[in-house]
Amino acid sequence: MTSLPLSHPDRTDGGFRPFKALHHFRRLIADKEDTEQVFHIIDALRDKRFGRSVERFFETAEGQRVLAERPYLPALLDDHDALRRLPEGSVGRVYVDFMEREGLTAQGLVDESLKFRRGKPSYDDMLEIYGDRLRDTHDLFHILTGYGRDALGEQCVLAFSYSQTPSWGTLFIAWAGAREIRKGLGRRYPIYAAVREGQRIGRVAEQIAHQNIETLLAEPLAAARKRLGIPEPVVYKQVHAMMRADGIDPYDLLGTKPAEAGAAKPEFAQAA
To answer: Which contiguous run of DSSP H or E holds residue 150?
Structure first.
């Protein structure tokens, strides 16, 4: 068993700061691509349950391997040439298509988290290693759950993530974001039901962050979803169908742009 501490003795707890979280949420709403705000919100609403989740991970065989080898996941996830050599339909191949289509990189999320950490010390402890792992696997959550990067898809992924690793920050963003969407679209669409479904799916599914990521990337996507117990997000797809029928593009934050007729679904969503 490693001697690395759960929490570094120099680490300080900033306390539960809901008004700070609300301030950063407003900034996130103003610019949904300003991912730095997510890290501020989660930090402002962190509670002891996160530490318990971290302990559970590092008690597993995969957790012990991670402590021993300290793999840097962004290097693995951003090696698109290597991932493209995986079989068609594998998690890794679908992930590459998703990341390139969205103009994203795993390192990009690292860079956003470093903006949040600017001027703050780095701690070599289990909390930091696991927090980084959750950050680095976020876009894999999209692939495995079938939720897109549309506004509702992001809230559903966060609700799913909350059930996997409870944190008031992720739950706050999921439901506050859902409220913003509902304010813009009205009550016709089952927005809250879609988020509740994401939370429910996350509760029954195997822990994505606890998987051997390299092995997971090589798995066929459908097989990985079945093994992990991740069912189809029925309500989320229902909302998308309703919006498109009404001429609303679900990938526009508040549905103010017309949907393109016959717009193709991303491959990872088709497979859900």
So the answer is: none
Judge residue 117's burial from the number of C-beta atoms within 10 Å of its C-beta, 0-12 exposed, 13-18 middle, 19 or more buried: middle
Q: Tell me the residue range of the domain where 156 lies.
A: 18-270
Six-digit token string for 177? 């974001």
Q: Which two tokens stand for residue 119?
A: 């001027």
Of the listed ranges 34-38, 88-92, 131-135, the one predicted with least confidence: 34-38
Domain presence at residue 262 = yes
For the segment 20-37, the average pLDDT, to the nearest whole number, is 84
Instruction: State whether residue 96 is helix, strand or coil.
Output: helix
What is the C-alpha separation between 256 and 243, in angstroms, rounded?
11
Tell me: the pLDDT tens digits for 181-230? 999 888 999 999 999 999 999 999 999 999 999 999 999 999 999 999 99
Structure tokens at 259: 């949907």
Whether residue 237 is predicted with pLDDT greater than 80 in this model: the reply is yes
Domain presence at residue 245 = yes
The answer to whether residue 39 is domain-embedded is: yes
pLDDT of residue 269: 58
Count CB-CB contacts under 10 A for residue 204.
11
Burial (0-12, 13-18, 19+ Cβ within 10 Å), 245: exposed
Structural domain count, the chain: 1
Report yes or no: 104 and 140 within 8 Å, Cβ to Cβ. no
d(CA 108, CA 117): 14
Tell me the helix, strand and coil percentages in the chain, rounded to 5.
Answer: 65, 0, 35
Asked if residue 110 is part of any domain, the answer here is yes
Is the pTM above the cut of 0.90? no
